[in-house]
Design goal:
Blueprint (H helix, E strand, L loop, with lengths): L9 E4 L2 E4 L10 H5 L2 E9 L2 E2 L2 H14 L8 H14 L4 E9 L17 E8 L5 H6 L1 E7 L14 H13 L3 E6 L2 E2 L6 E6 L2 E4 L10 H13 L3 E3 L4 H5 L3 E6 L3 E8 L2 E2 L7 H15 L2
Parallel strand pairs: 7-8, 7-14, 11-12
Antiparallel strand pairs: 1-2, 1-6, 3-4, 3-5, 5-6, 8-9, 10-11, 10-13, 13-14, 14-15
Helix pairs in contact: 6-8
Bound molecules: N-(5'-phosphopyridoxyl)-D-alanine.
Length: 288
């Protein structure tokens, strides 16, 4: 029994496909003991993975950053991901892929001898943003970013993100907006965008944010739509007085943020830049 998830859904673990409720890892897996691993979340529509090449690049960057060797080549991983996607019902799904350093006696330092990384993948339905979220936007609360200084690594050590997201749940909103030293970073599990005077702004790609797969995509969509884009530090005051604020992630896709800390963003309604970028995003999905 897995609370909240069907036990018979297909998962992949270390070379084998099995039911989710049958897959078992060692209690000494370093992912379990230390959060010593990385992950990816890949959306798929109508049986096709979205932006797979970009996910591979980020996966390889994350592995390199924490010095875990790539345990499988792209072709083998693609075969796993495709089989999971093919097993999923419904129009859209999410593949979760996790690679940890592997199993060894508990010791903070890397194992003294080479060990085999643990590779796990599962598929779950993608609950698409609702019509209400798309048409009326979502609400967020702002909080201090208390996470570590390597947010660019898609690490499974997510306690800071977990505690941040719980603050959103307890405030009855969809997400948080985090600030570090008065500058915008990102959501608990999403990137945040600001529109001022028709221009799209994002915090720079550095160690303080995860470069979402939608980061590069939004820049492309902005260019196609004739919206200028700039990555630069964004002070809190510029977020609070923005014309529009947007949130992006694999699961949120692109959504307008229309309330921050109970106050309306701009006129409190989704704005024109959101509409252009949302249309571009939908067109990319349709063209898959
Ligand atoms: N989270 N920033 C953080 C901290 C994230 O966890 C995510 C994604 C993003 C957006 O990245 P992308 O566009 O690649 O989804 C930004 C995923 C969805 C998750 O942890 O479930």
């Amino acid at each position: 029994m897995i609370p909240g998830m069907p036990g018979d859904s297909l998962v992949y673990l270390n070379g084998e496909f099995t039911r989710a409720d049958q897959a078992k890892i060692s209690v000494l897996d370093r992912g379990f003991i230390f959060g010593d691993g990385i992950y990816e979340v890949v959306p798929a529509y109508r049986g096709k993975a979205f932006r797979m090449a970009e996910h591979f690049k980020r996966l390889e960057r994350s592995l390199a950053a924490i010095r875990i060797p790539m345990p499988m080549d792209r072709a083998a991983l693609t075969a796993v991901i495709d089989r999971l996607i093919a097993s999923a019902a419904g129009p859209a799904c999410i593949v979760y892929l996790q690679i940890t350093r592997g199993v060894y006696k508990r010791d903070h330092a890397f194992p003294a001898q080479p060990i085999t990384p643990t590779v796990f993948a599962m598929v779950t339905p993608l609950v698409l943003p609702s019509a209400k979220q798309r048409e009326q936007g979502v609400a967020v609360v702002s909080i201090e970013d208390e996470r570590w200084l390597h947010c660019e690594i898609k690490s499974v050590s997510l306690l800071g993100n977990v505690l941040a997201r719980q603050q959103a749940v307890e405030a009855g909103v969809d997400e948080v907006i985090q600030y570090r030293d008065g500058l915008l970073t990102e959501g608990s599990s999403s990137n945040i965008w600001v529109v001022r005077d028709g221009k799209l702004l994002a915090p720079p790609k550095n160690n303080l944010i995860l470069e979402g797969i939608r980061y590069g995509l939004m820049a492309e969509l902005a260019e196609e739509a004739g919206v200028s884009f700039e990555a630069r530090p964004i002070p809190r005051a510029e977020v609070e007085s923005a014309d529009e604020v947007l949130v992006t992630s694999a699961t949120k896709e692109v959504l307008p943020v229309t309330r921050i800390d109970g106050k309306p963003v701009g006129d409190g309604k989704p704005g024109p830049v959101y509409r252009l970028l949302r249309a571009g995003y939908d067109a990319r999905i349709a063209a898959l």
